[in-house]
Amino acid sequence: MTAAAALFAQDGPVIPDFGRGDDCIRENGKFCLNWFLDEFTDRFWPRVVEHIELTVIAIAVGFVIAFTAALIAYRYARFELPFANVSALFYTIPSIAFFQIMVPITGIGWLTVEIALVSYTLLILFRNTLTGLREVPTEAKEAAEGMGLTRRQSLMQIELPLAAPAIVAGIRVATVTTISLATVGAFITPLGLGAPIFSAIQTGANTEFVAASLLAIALALIADVAIVMVQRALTPWSRARSPAT
Amino acid sequence: MSAESTAAEIVLDHVTKRYGNSARPAIDDLSLTIPAGEICVLIGPSGGGKTTAMKMINRLITITDGDITIDGTSVRSLELTELRRGIGYVIQQIGLFPHMTVEDNIGTVPRLLGWEKKRIRNRAQELLELVGLDPGEHAKRYPSQLSGGQRQRVGLARAMAADPPLMLMDEPFGAIDPITRERLQNDFLRLHRELRKTVVFVTHDIDEAIKMGDRICILREGGVRAQYDTPEAILAAPADEFVAQFVGADRGLKRLSLRRLDEVELLPVPADDSAGTPACPSKTTLRDALSIMLTEGSTGVVVLGQEGAPTGYMTFEVVSRLLSESEGERVT
Of the candidates A145, A148, A243, which has its C-beta nearest B112's C-beta? Predict the structure, then answer.
């Protein structure tokens, strides 16, 4: 039963259907751990999964678009400005407005939310990828060319691996931002951890509000740490810094 | 060495490089023949086009006019990557790949050539030893964990990985402190005596050119060949005022530094060998021996053989006789 349905199912004070609640939940305490634990599997976990899905899809799609654009701009500098401008434009639109603008075009549903989320990842992913590639040491590129690597080999074996820390750093920021932003998507359609947050705002259910918010924060922190770990595993060379004596 | 390394003869045949529509070419009708197995140093003032000339050999810069051949094959007739994989390339900034271990850096060209992993690893070990690094200690390190001198050694090993018959070296020791540079120079010369590859070596340091070069090509501004000869011949007889100025007023002294006492005809040790006469080993260069004479205020220096016994006597007359020899009498 969704929160909205619960709201209409009863009359009287706005205390939604919390099922078999203890005193804490009946009195709408700030955070009722027992209730949270009881409800976690049915009420929150599916939202967490949705939230992860929203984020992963947004980052994946955003990365494919931004990465391709960055490669094009790296090779042909004249594309940089238009790409940067378009992604910056998306970035500046207020998120709520963006969701609202998209509704007449893509309807009320996950696609609208996803499109908005993707568009917000573009700027940081594009910028970081391009900057990472541009900051590859000239002498490494020159050595690669002089030793007979083809352009493609140089890109795949030298330039992209050396740009990897910057690229992953972009993914990290984009992921954390998207996890946060995705909660606003529930303004359009009840998806992800934004759904319990919105419903709790309407119903005044403290525990639901706090729990969903904390879960969103936890998700962002876990994602952040996980990406840092992946980055370290991928780039052992970037930490090797002890010149021989 | 595993494979018997071969060296290639390089010929620059009326090579011209012109950028865009500029009136003055960067390289103007340059012809050179570099015999197989020799070190040819390209030197000149900035704007002389020494790096440009070198980079036309592996076509990092395209040739406007003329041709360059390696063992008779025009560089223009080869696939670009194939040409470059067959030429060792060392640059001043070294250009090691920071994300690869020393071993993987060295294996770059062999990987491109499709060698087996085991063969690449063995080759890397062999090369590390050759350039004076301990494979056990250094193979798995990243470039950021090496000193400047060690990096340049790895750069050298990487350039030699696929045993190319030709190596291009663009100011390879330019960014290294003087003491390490001298050690690298000596080690490279020793290596070269063993491997006998053809080397094109760019520098702006005339002392380095004299030390390293079997032949030196001096380019003047506008990429015109000013003189191409052995160091001895250039120092003995500069082709013109430009070359004379370029090699410096101390060219006589520089020439003396090319020869050691055991390579020249000395005077007999005087019988009344008074205690005050300085002595030096026969491996000393004439320049250093002369310096000893001047420092000690002596008119001669006793030359000691390997057992420490006097084998000859050097005086100012010996020096001036050698310097007055015409350049044709001696080929180094």
Answer: A148
Amino acid at B283: K
Amino acid at residue number A152: R
Interface confidence: ipTM more than 0.90: no
Q: Model-level pTM greater than 0.90?
A: no
Min Cα distance A84 → chain B (Å) is: 29
CA B295/CA B309 separation, integer angstroms: 23
Using CA atoms, how far apart are residues B188 and B200, in angstroms rounded to an integer? 13
Tokens encoding B78: 């080869």
Q: Provide the H-helix boundaries in chain B.
A: 50-57, 80-85, 102-106, 108-112, 117-130, 135-138, 148-159, 178-195, 206-212, 231-236, 241-247, 251-256, 286-296, 316-324
Span B99-128, pLDDT tens digits: 999 999 999 999 999 999 999 999 999 999
d(CA B154, CA B102): 7
CA–CA distances in Å: residue B53 to residues A144, B40, B56, B152, B216: 19, 12, 5, 23, 14
Query: Does A147 contact B109 at a Cβ distance shorter than 8 Å?
Result: yes
Structure tokens given for A62: 């955003």
- What are B284-322's pLDDT values in tens digits? 889 999 999 999 888 888 888 888 888 888 888 888 888
Check if B59 contacts A (Cβ < 8 Å): no
Ranges of beta strands (E only) in chain A are none
